[in-house]
Specification:
Number of helices: 28
Shape: globular
Strand content: under 5%
Helix content: 55-70%
């Protein structure tokens, strides 16, 4: 995934699968008697169903020796040739007419939709036959991996126009929904046409291959739109490119991201079965000397010390949880042994480790941009802690320099308010798919927005009450309530805690004071809280109504953000601070090749125990053993079935009977029996074609294949 890696990181010397290569497929042998014309269609449906089952099983098993696996990284296009074994890595999709396809799709969508429809209306059978399916058939190209990306780019533009062009607001929203729906059905069609691991790899090319909107645009267009990479960072021809998965996250295409074909790729990337080199927004320590193309990963053909595995989303998520637990433990030790007069050992360890953790969080913000990072479930907690830590460290260091004990106490008091942030954050990590936490994130955004609007609007009551107290001759100016006291009374009334403000209202003015307080109580305590509860209830109901799509959307965000390209993510806090101080100056002195060698050497040395554990675990559990490799008996793992906790279930056999597809002789026997039954049924139907046929009279094979395909 990461661009950093030596030329001999993996033992496999095969190249990655060409995106335009037709998949070989794993077809089931069809007996000769099934080739008869009157039974050909029914047996073809059964064979397709069995092939679908086999392709799903194939995606989970080990790669064969003749299959394409994870290749060595190759040099990017701007790399330097330093030996005969080093080759340039050409973008396999750089010849696709992305600019042309984007504008072609836009013209087609504009001509197809002139009236507003909801997403549910677009999903109806009539709209599917009249609009959606013809668009899928018209735009579908089995050799073009950029069509889905172009559809999602058009969805993003229609959503933008929906926000600014109010006279076409609902129509543009419908067009955006149509783009997402067509992209979803097209991805499903790609998945159906290419079963097996070759199809999985092709779906990965569609979703995580980087594209640029102006790719292969005319020269006059390119001259008028000169886009340069951020901060001048060169990424070997991949600057400014985005993937279809990233565009779907930015445009919040939750229906697309929750589709089975998309989730298949997301799960493969999350587990590390698919590896690729991501594009980044800004790298703190850029190491773009090597490029790893999209490919399948086989741990048997890889070296044990494979630093790529540190940034597999599942592995990185586990490492991040461990890092946060260490941060939380150091925080508790620091606060339990706080000393405002001097730095304790516990506080020094916490400050250093937290600085490395904050650096990792800052690099995550720069990796894919602010918008993608804030889509993470617990990003608002991390950002809040970063702000608290920065304030604490600035005040604490300044107080230590000038010798102020009071500033030290204030700094530790600021750090103490991080406890309500750190403890819930651990719960978010442990239960990221819990509906309470998912809805809490959305409701917090609505609550914050509505509270800021209320404070802004109710500020007028505060000013009116203060000015009334100034103009009251019966109350001395020094005895009049200050703005803080008035704000406290208003806050109590707001949440229904106390009515002191209403009792003290005559001090402002005998008539106007109580009037303002009562009006404020009606607006704040009754109207505002009622509106707030209604909005939060509506937000929760929307999320709960489509809980599956929301959970899978968060899973896609977690997976996409977990794939990192910045070299700083390979160093654990606080070693990332040392890497920043040591490697960043070397970047301007050494050649890309030597900088790359030094970088991967340091990564392997500092993470040697973790890399060994990852290699041992993945060689055992990343892919399931294939039946073809051990057809005569149980696999090596089944001999230790006593330690498999699923075998302790009373109903374990019900699950075990479906774990492997039946042998070929069982399939042949089923087909022979169905052949005879279908022949009898077709003879009985010959004299009754004029009558309507009930669903129960459909040949059993067709019903069976439809159930398997479903």
């Amino acid at each position: 995934m990461n661009g950093s890696g030596s030329s001999n990181d993996n033992g496999n010397r095969e190249g990655s699968l060409s995106p335009k290569r037709a998949p070989p497929g794993q077809h089931i042998r069809i007996p000769e008697q099934l080739q008869r014309p009157h039974l050909n269609q029914s047996h073809r449906s059964l064979s397709d169903a069995l092939r679908l089952v086999r392709s799903r099983e194939e995606q989970e098993t080990l790669l064969g020796d003749d299959e394409v696996a994870d290749p060595d990284g190759c040099l990017r296009e701007d790399g330097l040739m330093n030996g005969p074994r080093e080759i340039f890595c050409r973008d396999p999709h750089q010849d696709l007419p992305v600019y042309y396809t984007i504008h072609r799709i836009r013209r087609i969508i504009l001509a197809s939709i002139d009236d507003p429809y909801t997403m549910d209306q677009l999903k109806e059978p009539r709209m599917n036959v009249l609009i959606v399916k013809p668009l899928v058939d018209r735009l579908y190209d089995e050799e073009d991996a950029s069509v889905v990306y172009c559809l999602l780019v058009n969805r993003t533009q229609f959503l933008r126009e929906q926000a600014f062009q109010h006279h076409h607001q609902t129509v543009n929203l419908t067009r955006a929904h149509l783009c997402e729906l067509v992209a979803t059905k097209m991805l499903r069609k790609y998945d159906a046409d290419r079963p097996g691991r070759d199809g999985l790899l092709w779906l990965a090319h569609i979703l995580v291959s980087p594209f640029q909107p102006f790719q292969n645009a005319p020269q006059e267009v390119l001259r008028g739109n000169r886009h340069v990479s951020w901060l001048g960072q060169e990424q070997g021809g991949y600057e400014g490119k985005l993937t279809a998965l990233e565009v779907a996250i930015v445009s919040e295409s939750k229906i697309f991201l929750s589709s089975s074909a998309c989730q298949k790729v997301v799960d493969a990337v999350y587990r590390g079965r698919i590896v690729y080199t991501p594009t980044s927004f800004i790298d703190i320590i850029p190491d773009h000397y090597k490029h790893k193309p999209i490919s399948l990963y086989d741990p048997r053909k890889s070296r044990i010390m494979n630093q790529y595995r540190l940034i597999v989303p599942r592995t990185r998520n586990f490492i991040e949880v461990v890092q946060f637990v260490i941060l939380l433990g150091l925080y508790c030790l620091c606060m339990m042994n706080r000393d405002q007069a001097k730095f304790t050992t516990e506080e020094a360890w916490f400050m250093i480790y937290a600085a490395g953790w904050v650096l990792d969080e800052f690099a995550s913000m720069l990796e894919h941009g602010w918008h993608v990072h804030t889509q993470n479930l617990w990003s608002f907690l991390d950002i809040t802690f970063v702000i608290i830590y920065v304030l604490y460290s600035m005040i604490r260091i300044h107080g230590w320099i000038i010798g102020s004990v009071e500033e030290g106490r204030q700094a530790l008091d600021i750090l103490a308010i991080a406890a309500p942030i750190l403890l819930p954050r651990l719960a978010f990590n442990v239960m990221p798919e819990n509906m309470l936490f998912i809805s809490l994130r959305a409701m917090m955004a609505d609550f914050t927005t509505l509270s800021l609007i209320a404070v802004w609007c109710f500020g007028g009551f505060l000013l009116a009450l203060k000015w009334l107290s100034i103009g009251n001759d019966k109350v001395d100016f020094e005895d009049s309530p200050n703005p803080i006291t008035i704000s406290k009374w208003m806050l109590w009334i707001w949440f229904g805690l106390d009515g002191t403000g209403i009792q003290e209202a005559p001090k402002f003015h005998e008539i106007l004071g109580p009037t303002l307080m009562v009006v404020y109580a009606f607006l704040g305590n009754t109207l505002f809280l009622t509106v707030l509860v209604s909005i939060l209830s509506n937000t929760f109901s929307k999320i709960a109504a489509d809980a599956t799509a929301e959970i899978q959307f968060r899973r896609a965000v977690l997976t996409f953000e977990g794939v990192k390209s910045d070299a700083i993510f390979a160093y654990r806090p606080p070693f990332n601070i040392l890497a920043l101080l040591f490697l960043l100056p070397l970047k301007f002195v050494l050649t890309p090749r030597w900088f790359h060698k030094i970088n991967i050497t340091m990564v392997r040395v500092l993470n040697a125990p973790i890399l060994i554990l990852i290699a041992l675990h993945e060689r055992r559990s990343l892919w399931k053993p294939s039946r073809k490799q051990n057809p005569l008996g149980p696999s090596k793992h089944s001999k230790w079935g006593f330690w498999n906790w699923s075998n302790f279930s009373v109903h374990a056999d019900i699950q075990a009977v479906f774990e492997e597809e039946p042998p070929q002789e069982i399939i042949d026997k089923i087909e022979e029996e169905d052949e005879l039954e279908d022949a009898i049924l077709e003879n009985s139907f010959a004299g009754a074609r004029s009558r309507s046929i009930s669903p129960n009279m459909v040949p059993r094979r067709r019903r069976l294949s439809s159930v398997w395909q479903g």
